[in-house]
Inverse folding.
C-alpha cells in the first residue's frame, strides 16, 4: 500500500521556503516572512514594498506553500485548476512575474503551471486557457473582466485561493482600480477560500488603499494586515544646472538645451534610463541623441507604450543583458521589471509627483542596499525651483495621496453588462456585493434602480417607437444579454477604459509598428513624413483603422502627440515649492544651489515685477498681441489653480460680459481676454472670498469645458460610444459617434441622466480639489495682494502665456457677440 | 437616373425676407436664402434644400445598445416644420443621407410627418440612403441620383461638372474662427467656393468636419438663431515673445 505523505504544519512549510533561500545564498527579509505567515493564516492584506525588494517572492511562496499544504503528494500528483491570480497593471511586467513564479514552482518540485493572459495573448492561447486554466494566472484588470464575461466563470474561479493585485497604487485613483474593486466583490462570493492581497509602493493614503482593496467594513478588511517593508533605500537627487543660465530658456518642455550634459552621465554608468513625460518627448530625445552622437547607434534604444510588443520585449531583454548604454523611455518602464545593470536614472522635466519620482529613482541601483541615483534635468528655468523642492521632498518622503473614485456609474454599468454577457445576474445577489465596495458604499436603492432601468430600457420609462436593446430581463428575473452582437461589442469595449481612438500603424507591406492616436493622423496628408518609433515614416493612407506607411529618408519635425495623464503637486509639495521660491528673497547663504543659479532670472523678474515674499500674493497684468493677460501666482499646484482660475473667472464674468481663455501650471494661472479686467474691481468685490465657494465653483463648471471632457471617458466606459478596435481592423463606423455630440444631446434632452451628472461630479471631486482650494483661499486672505501692471511679460509668466495646448474657456458673453469679434484664417491653396 | 424639374414654376411675387437672421446670396442671377437651421431656399423655384438629416440615427444607436436620449428624435421634425412654415416651399429637396441606416421605427414617424407636408418631396440619394426607393415611392417621394436645373447641379457628393454650379451636402462642413485673447469657436456653416456651395448637415445628432477657408471662398456660419457671414483674414506670421 502506498504511504501517503503527512500534511505539513506551518513550520515545515517555512522550512521549504527558507531552504530555497539558502540555496540561492539569500536570506528572507522580515517583511517576506511576515507575509508568508499572514497568508498561511488565511489573512488578507496590503504589502507596502518598493519594486526590486523581492516582493514577488513574498507572495508567490505562500501561494505555492498553501498548495503544498493541501496536496501533500504534490511532487507526484498534479491537481489541476486555477489556484491564484496575479494582477499587474502593465502587460510589460507579466513576463518578469511569470519567471519568478516558474522558478518557485519548479524549484519546489511542484507540477504547477503558470500562464499569462493579457491583451497581447493570441486567440489560440486564450481558447486553450479556457479549456484548462493554468494553476497560476498572471493577467491585467481588463483581462480579468473579460474572464468574468465568459460563460461559467464561477466554476473557473471556484478553487482560486488567492488574488494578488500588484502595483495597487497605480490602479488606485483610476477607473481601472474601480474595475478591480468590482471584480473582487464578485470573486469574494464565487471563490470561497480567496485571500486578497495588494502590493503598493509608498503613497500618502496607504491605510485607505487597503480599505479600497478589501472593502470598508468587510469581513476581509477585519481579517487583514498591513505589512511594511522597511528598506532604507538611499536616494540621491542631483540637479543638472546649465553653466550659462543667461541662455537657458524661460519656457519649453523638451529640455534639449541640456542634451550635452546627459552625455557624460551616460558614459559614466553601465546603463542609464532617461525618463520623459510624454511619448512624443521620448521620440524627440531619442532622435536628437542619435543625431548629435551617432557613436551611440546600436547602444541606445527607446521604450514607450505605443511601440509594438516585440520591440518592447527586445529592449527590456537588452537592458537585462547590459547590451544598451541608455534607454529613452516613458512611464512604460516605471514599474516592476528588474533591471540590474541600470545604475543611473535621468528625469527630464518635472515628474509631476514625488511618488513617481521616487519610483523612477528606484529603477537604478535596483538591489537592496545599493544607492539610487537620479538626475533631474529641467526643461526651463523655473523648473529648477521644482528641482530644489523635489530634493527636500525626497528627504522628507512627502508622497501624494491617490484619491479613489466614488460612485463611478459608468464602470458599474460596464461591469453589470459584463455579468449579463456571461451567465446573467440577479440584482438581489449583486447589489449587496457592490454595496460592500469602497466605490459604491454610498449608492442608494434609487440609483441602483436607475442603473437597472438604464441597462434594460435605455431610459427610465418605456417609450413608444423605441427599439432600445441591450440587457433583457428573463422570466425568473435574471438580467441577461442574449444578442450575440451586443455581447461581442461589449467584449471589445472592456478595457478601452480611456484614450482617443487608436489606429494601428503598419507598413504597406505588412508589419505592425505601433499604435497612434487618430487626432494626430487626421492632420496628415498623403506624403507627409513623421517620426514614430524612432523611424521616419511617410504617411500613405488610412484604411480600416490602420495607418499605412513606408520608410522615408526625408527629415521631419512632425512627432505624434499623445495625450498624457496630468498629475498635480500635492499640498506638501506645493508648500515646499513656495518655500523654495520665497528663499529667493532671503540670505544667499541659506539658498540651494538651484535657487542661486536662478539669480539672473529673479533679477529680470524684479525689474518688471516682484519675487513675492511669504506674506505676498502676486498678480501681474500686461498686454501682448494675444490680448490682455492677467496672471495670478498662488503656487498651489495645477489642480488648485484650475479650480481657482475657474472660480475667479466665473465671478469676474458676472460683473460684465467677458470671455476668457485660461491656462494653468503648478505655479499659477492666467486669465487671458480681449478686454482688460479691472483688478481693483476684483479686489474691491472681494472675489477671492470663500463665501458661496462651492456654489460658484459648481456653476463655473457649466461655463467651462471641463465636464465635457470628463464625459468623454464616461460615454466610452458605459458603452454609449463605441470606439471600435484598433488592431482587429473591425469597422463600426455607423455606430461611431462623437462623445461631444452626445454630451450636447444629453444636456438638451436628459440633463438628469446619472452619467451626464457624473461628468460634473467627477470634475468637482477629482479635478478641482475643493478642500485644498478653500485652504488656499484662506491663505491668500492673510496675504497682502500685490498687483503689478507690467510693460511686458515677466519670466514667471512665460510658461503660462506660451501654453497653447491645455487651455480652458469660460464665457459670459452671447455667442453672437463673441463670434462677431472673430474671423476665420485663410489657407492659401 | 436624372431628373429635371419643368420650369413651370410660377414666378411668385418677390417676398422680402426682411428678418435679420437669414443671409442671402445671388448665384447666376438666382436668389438663395440661408436659414439658421442650415436649410437653403431657392427663391425663384420655391425650393427648399435640406441636407444630411440622418433620421433614424438615434434609434439606430439605441437598437445597438447605446442609450442616446430618445427625446432627440422629435427635434429634427420640429426644426424642419419651422423652416417649412417660414418659406412655404413648393418643393422640398433632401440632398442625401436622409436616413442614417437601415429601416427602423423612426420610418413610421417620418411616414406620419410626410402626410403633413404639402410640398413635393424629392430625395437626391446619398451614401447612407440604403432604404429601398420603393419605400419612398410609396410615400410619393421621388428618388433621384441628381438634379440638373438651369445651370445648377444638385448632388449629395460634391461634384465638379462643366459649367454647372453645384449644390451638395455630404461634407458636414464647419468652420473654426479665432479672435483676440486666444478665443476660438467651431460652427456649422454653408461653405461656398467658386462653383459650389456645400450645405451644412441638418441632423440634430450629426457631427461636422472642419473646413479650411481657401482663397475666394465665402463662409456663412450658423449661430443658432442667425446666419453670419464670416470675415476671413490672412494668417499673420506670429513672432515669438522675446525675453
Amino acid at each position: 500500500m502506498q504511504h501517503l505523505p503527512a500534511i505539513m504544519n506551518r513550520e515545515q512549510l517555512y522550512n521549504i521556503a527558507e531552504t530555497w533561500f539558502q540555496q540561492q545564498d539569500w536570506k528572507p527579509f522580515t517583511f517576506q516572512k511576515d507575509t508568508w505567515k499572514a497568508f498561511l493564516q488565511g489573512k488578507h492584506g496590503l504589502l507596502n514594498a518598493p519594486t526590486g525588494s523581492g516582493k514577488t517572492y513574498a507572495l508567490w511562496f505562500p501561494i505555492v506553500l498553501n498548495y503544498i499544504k493541501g496536496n501533500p503528494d504534490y511532487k507526484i500528483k498534479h491537481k489541476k485548476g486555477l489556484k491564484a491570480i496575479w494582477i499587474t497593471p502593465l502587460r510589460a511586467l507579466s513576463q518578469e512575474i511569470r519567471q519568478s513564479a516558474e522558478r518557485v514552482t519548479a524549484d519546489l518540485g511542484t507540477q504547477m503551471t503558470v500562464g499569462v493572459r493579457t491583451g497581447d495573448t493570441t486567440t489560440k492561447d486564450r481558447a486553450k486557457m479556457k479549456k484548462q486554466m493554468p494553476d497560476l494566472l498572471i493577467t491585467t484588470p481588463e483581462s480579468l473582466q473579460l474572464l468574468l464575461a465568459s460563460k461559467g466563470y464561477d466554476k473557473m474561479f471556484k478553487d482560486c485561493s488567492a488574488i494578488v493585485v500588484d502595483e495597487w497604487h497605480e490602479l488606485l485613483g483610476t477607473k481601472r482600480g474601480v474595475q478591480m474593486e468590482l471584480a473582487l466583490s464578485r470573486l469574494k462570493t464565487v471563490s470561497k477560500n480567496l485571500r486578497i492581497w495588494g502590493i503598493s509602493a509608498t503613497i500618502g493614503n496607504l491605510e485607505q488603499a487597503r480599505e479600497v482593496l478589501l472593502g470598508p467594513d468587510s469581513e476581509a478588511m477585519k481579517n487583514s494586515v498591513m505589512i511594511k517593508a522597511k528598506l532604507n533605500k538611499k536616494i540621491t537627487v542631483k540637479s543638472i544646472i546649465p553653466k550659462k543660465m543667461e541662455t537657458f530658456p524661460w519656457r519649453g518642455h523638451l529640455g534639449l538645451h541640456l542634451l550635452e550634459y546627459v552625455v557624460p552621465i551616460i558614459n559614466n554608468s553601465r546603463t542609464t534610463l532617461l525618463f520623459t513625460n510624454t511619448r512624443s518627448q521620448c521620440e524627440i530625445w531619442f532622435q536628437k541623441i542619435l543625431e548629435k552622437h551617432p557613436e551611440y547607434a546600436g547602444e541606445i534604444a527607446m521604450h514607450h507604450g505605443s511601440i509594438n510588443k516585440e520591440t518592447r520585449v527586445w529592449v527590456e531583454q537588452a537592458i537585462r543583458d547590459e547590451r544598451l548604454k541608455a534607454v529613452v523611455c516613458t512611464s512604460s518602464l516605471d514599474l516592476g521589471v528588474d533591471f540590474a545593470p541600470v545604475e543611473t536614472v535621468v528625469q527630464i522635466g518635472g515628474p509631476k509627483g514625488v511618488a513617481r519620482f521616487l519610483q523612477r529613482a528606484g529603477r537604478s541601483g535596483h538591489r537592496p542596499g545599493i544607492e539610487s541615483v537620479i538626475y533631474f534635468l529641467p526643461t526651463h528655468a523655473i523648473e529648477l525651483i521644482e528641482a530644489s523642492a523635489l530634493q527636500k521632498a525626497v528627504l522628507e518622503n512627502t508622497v501624494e495621496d491617490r484619491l479613489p473614485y466614488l460612485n463611478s456609474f459608468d464602470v458599474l454599468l460596464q461591469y453589470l453588462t459584463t455579468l449579463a454577457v456571461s451567465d446573467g445576474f440577479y440584482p438581489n445577489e449583486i447589489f449587496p456585493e457592490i454595496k460592500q465596495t469602497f466605490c459604491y458604499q454610498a449608492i442608494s436603492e434609487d440609483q441602483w434602480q436607475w442603473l437597472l432601468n438604464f441597462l434594460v430600457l435605455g431610459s427610465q420609462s418605456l417609450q413608444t417607437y423605441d427599439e432600445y436593446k441591450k440587457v433583457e430581463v428573463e422570466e425568473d428575473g435574471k438580467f441577461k444579454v442574449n444578442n450575440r452582437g451586443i455581447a461581442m461589442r461589449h467584449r471589445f469595449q472592456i478595457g478601452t477604459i480611456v484614450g482617443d481612438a487608436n489606429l494601428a500603424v503598419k507598413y504597406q507591406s505588412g508589419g505592425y509598428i505601433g499604435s497612434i492616436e487618430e487626432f494626430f493622423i487626421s492632420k496628415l496628408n498623403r506624403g507627409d513624413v513623421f517620426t514614430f518609433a524612432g523611424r521616419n515614416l511617410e504617411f500613405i493612407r488610412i484604411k480600416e483603422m490602420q495607418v499605412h506607411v513606408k520608410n522615408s529618408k526625408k527629415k521631419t519635425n512632425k512627432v505624434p502627440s499623445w495625450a498624457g495623464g496630468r498629475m498635480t503637486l500635492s499640498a506638501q509639495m506645493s508648500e515646499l515649492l513656495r518655500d523654495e521660491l520665497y528663499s529667493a528673497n532671503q540670505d544667499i547663504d541659506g539658498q540651494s544651489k538651484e535657487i542661486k543659479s536662478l539669480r539672473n532670472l529673479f533679477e529680470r523678474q524684479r525689474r518688471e515685477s516682484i519675487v513675492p515674499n511669504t506674506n505676498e500674493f502676486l498678480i501681474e497684468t500686461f498686454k501682448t498681441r494675444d490680448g490682455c493677460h492677467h496672471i495670478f501666482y498662488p503656487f498651489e499646484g495645477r489642480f488648485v489653480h484650475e479650480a481657482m482660475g475657474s472660480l475667479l473667472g466665473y465671478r469676474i464674468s458676472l460683473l460684465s460680459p467677458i470671455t476668457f481663455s485660461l491656462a494653468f501650471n503648478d505655479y499659477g494661472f492666467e486669465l487671458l481676454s480681449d478686454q482688460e479686467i479691472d483688478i481693483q474691481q476684483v479686489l474691491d468685490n472681494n472675489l477671492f472670498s470663500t463665501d458661496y465657494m462651492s456654489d460658484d465653483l459648481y456653476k463655473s463648471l457649466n461655463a467651462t469645458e471641463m465636464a465635457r471632457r470628463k464625459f468623454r471617458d464616461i460615454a466610452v466606459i458605459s458603452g454609449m460610444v463605441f470606439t471600435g478596435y484598433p488592431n482587429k481592423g473591425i469597422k463600426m463606423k455607423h455606430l461611431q459617434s462623437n462623445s461631444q455630440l452626445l454630451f450636447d444631446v444629453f444636456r438638451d434632452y436628459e440633463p438628469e441622466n446619472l452619467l451626464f451628472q457624473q461628468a460634473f461630479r467627477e470634475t468637482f471631486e477629482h479635478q478641482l480639489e475643493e478642500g485644498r482650494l478653500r485652504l488656499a483661499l484662506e491663505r491668500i486672505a492673510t496675504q497682502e495682494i500685490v498687483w503689478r501692471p507690467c510693460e511686458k511679460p515677466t519670466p514667471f509668466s512665460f510658461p503660462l502665456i506660451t501654453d497653447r495646448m491645455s487651455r480652458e474657456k469660460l464665457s459670459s458673453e452671447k455667442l453672437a457677440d463673441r463670434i462677431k469679434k472673430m474671423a476665420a484664417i485663410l489657407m492659401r491653396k | 437616373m436624372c431628373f429635371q424639374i419643368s420650369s413651370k414654376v410660377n414666378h411668385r411675387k418677390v417676398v422680402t425676407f426682411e428678418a435679420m437672421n437669414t443671409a442671402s446670396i445671388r448665384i447666376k442671377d438666382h436668389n438663395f436664402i440661408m436659414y439658421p437651421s442650415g436649410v437653403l431656399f431657392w427663391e425663384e423655384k420655391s425650393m427648399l434644400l435640406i441636407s444630411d438629416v440622418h433620421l433614424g440615427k438615434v434609434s439606430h444607436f439605441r437598437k445597438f445598445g447605446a442609450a442616446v436620449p430618445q427625446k432627440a428624435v422629435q427635434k429634427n421634425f420640429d426644426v424642419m416644420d419651422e423652416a417649412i412654415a417660414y418659406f412655404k416651399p413648393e418643393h422640398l429637396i433632401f440632398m442625401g443621407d436622409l436616413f442614417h441606416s437601415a429601416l427602423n421605427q423612426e420610418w413610421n414617424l417620418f411616414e406620419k410627418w410626410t402626410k403633413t407636408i404639402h410640398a413635393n418631396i424629392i430625395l437626391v440619394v446619398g451614401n447612407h440612403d440604403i432604404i429601398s426607393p420603393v419605400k419612398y415611392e410609396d410615400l410619393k417621394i421621388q428618388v433621384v441620383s441628381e438634379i440638373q436645373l438651369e445651370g445648377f447641379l444638385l448632388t449629395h457628393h460634391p461634384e465638379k461638372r462643366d459649367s454647372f454650379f453645384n449644390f451638395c451636402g455630404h461634407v458636414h462642413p464647419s468652420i473654426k474662427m479665432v479672435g483676440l485673447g486666444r478665443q476660438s469657436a467651431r460652427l456649422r456653416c454653408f461653405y461656398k467656393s467658386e462653383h459650389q456651395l456645400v450645405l451644412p448637415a441638418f441632423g440634430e445628432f450629426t457631427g461636422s468636419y472642419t473646413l479650411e477657408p481657401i482663397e475666394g471662398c465665402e463662409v456663412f456660419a450658423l449661430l443658432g438663431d442667425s446666419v453670419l457671414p464670416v470675415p476671413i483674414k490672412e494668417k499673420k506670421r506670429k513672432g515669438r515673445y522675446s525675453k
Residues 182 and 412 of chain A are 8 Å apart (CA to CA).
